[in-house]
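User: For a reading group we're discussing how well predicted structures match intuition. Take Cytochrome c3. Before you show the prediction, I'll give you the sequence so everyone sees exactly what went in.
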Amino acid sequence: MFFASFALAANPPMGADRHVAKGVTCNSCHGEDLKNPKFPDDATCTQCHNKDALAEKTKELPGANPHKAPHNGECINCHLQHEPPENYCAQCHKFDFNVK
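Assistant: Thanks. Here is the predicted 3D structure of Cytochrome c3, as C-alpha cells, for the group to look at:
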C-alpha cells in the first residue's frame, strides 16, 4: 500500500485518468475515429463542464478568477489532460493557482 501511495505522489493522475475513472471514454473527447482523433477544444469541454458553474466554484481564488478572465482562452491551456496541468495565467501574472 505504501508503494502505491508513493507512486501516485510521484505520478499524480492526469485529467484523462480522472475522466476514465468516471467512465468517460476517449471517444467522448476525441471522436469516434481514434486512428484520426480530433483535438478537443472549449466546446468539447463545455459539453460536460458548465463554465458558469466553474467560475462560481473558483470565485474565491486569490488574485483573479481564471474561469472569468477577460482573455480566458481554451480550457486546455491549463487542463492538458495527457500532461500535468499548467497555470497558464502565470505566464504573465503572479496568480498562484493550483490547477487540477
